Amino acid sequence: MSGHATRRNSTPPTGQPDVTAVPAGWWVRPAGSGAADPMDPAFAALPDPDGATTVIVGAAGGPPPPASAVAAFLLAMAPARQDDVIVALYGRGLAGERALPGQLAELTGRAVLAQHGLLLTGPDGAAQVVAIDGPAASAWCPFVQHCLHVPGTSPTVIRWHDPAPGLRGLGAGDYRLAGDWVVRLVPAGLVLRQEGAPPNTALDAAAFDPARLDLIVDHPRGELPDGVLAALGRLADALPRPARRRLRVVLPPGTAEAEALRMRWAVPAPQHIRRAAGGGGSAVGGGGGSAVGRGPGGTGPRPVVPATALAVTAAGRMRLVDPAASRPSG
Questions:
Q1: Report field, pTM of the whole predicted structure over 0.85
Q2: Among 12, 15, 220, 287, whose Cα sits 20 to 30 Å from the Cα of 23?
Q3: Residues 154, 204: contact at Cβ < 8 Å?
């Protein structure tokens, strides 16, 4: 394994800010970050078991490099490696900016497979994806481990684990909550909506933040039936303790004070009311909200998306592949 990692790290792409070779692949930090601490968890991150190059972006407690710098780094990699990369998010995003993997997908014109944390050895010796808030904060395991970002579309959850016992899974990270209400796992946490309602794609694309687990209500004015509120309370109580400590309830624009109070009685947690976004979407964030990506209805040209597919490896993991590479010639 170490020999394979050495070959992978022998020639770094040039012109990038503070790039450090680590056992998992590369660690990309903002320019001027200084010497990397060899005791940092980034050096303990495990290489991808299927041989993909892991690009760790950011550092604990700090912002990531600019998306343009990370995109340039990805494009500077050898062409044979560009479709075999995992972008591991480390540290916090920038307030008011769209999710970094979505930006990278648009800037590079390629699908980006994002990992919400570092692949570390757990207490039981098994590898697990772990998110770290900051240097002194406890680590936790996000529900969404891997997410695929394709230019011009909402992210697709690829690998995840159940947020709480007893939920009825519907596939692709969706769960039945109560009646015709479902919760969906997304990078930012969970989205609650009524089955059959048109999804707010901006909410599904909201950025992952290791310091928070958002419970986002995607329903006009947030007027939820009593049974749904009770089910949300049970779900919140059943969350793993590290996730419960980070829980924040995100309510829709225009939520009345009385409705916010009903929610607080059901789910005692900090609340945030989204502001209405200009293009008919919504915003999620701190300090009044921040715009988060655009769905297929967004404005502006879309980059050409190279042919990309997901393949299942012998170990049962997902990886990006170029369909043409495996197609027989002639």
A1: no
A2: 15
A3: yes
Q: Does residue 297 share a domain with residue 153? A: yes
Q: How far is it, in rounded angstroms, from Cα 116 to Cα 130?
A: 7
- Length of the chain measured in residues: 330
Indicate if 189 and 248 belong to the same structural domain. Answer: yes
Asked if residue 114 lies in contact with residue 147, where contact means CB atoms within 8 angstroms, the answer is yes
Q: How many domains does the chain have?
A: 2
Q: 143 and 237: one domain?
A: no
The answer to whether residues 155 and 300 belong to one domain is yes
Residues 222 and 168 occupy one common structural domain: yes
Residues 170-214: pLDDT tens digits? Answer: 988 999 999 999 999 999 999 999 998 888 889 999 999 999 999
Q: Which residues pair with 149 in a beta bridge?
A: 112
Classify residue 329: in a domain, yes or no.
no
**Residue that is written with structure tokens 């591991």 in the block:** 88
| Cα–Cα distance for residue pair 157/148, rounded to 1 Å | 6
- Per-residue pLDDT tens for 118-143? 999 988 999 999 999 876 567 899 99
Q: Tell me the three-class secondary structure of the chain, residue by residue.
A: CHHHHHHHHCCCCCCCCCEEEECCEEEECCCCCCCCCCCCHHHHCCCCCCCCEEEEECCCCCCCCCHHHHHHHHHHCCHHHHCCEEEEECCCCCCCCCCHHHHHHHHHCCCEEEECCEEEECCCCCEEEEEECCCCCCEECCCEEEEEECCCCCCEEEEECCCCCCCEEEECCEEEEECCEEEEEECCEEEEEECCCCCCHHHHCCCCCCCCEEEEECCHHHCCCHHHHHHHHHHHHHCCHHHHHCEEEEECCCCCHHHHHHHHHHCCCCEEECCECCCCCEECCCCCCCECCCCCCCCCCCCCCCCCEEEECCCCCEEEECHHHHCCCC
Q: Check whether residue 150 and residue 42 sit in a common domain.
A: yes
For residues 78 and 304, give the distance between their C-alpha atoms in angstroms, rounded to a whole number: 20
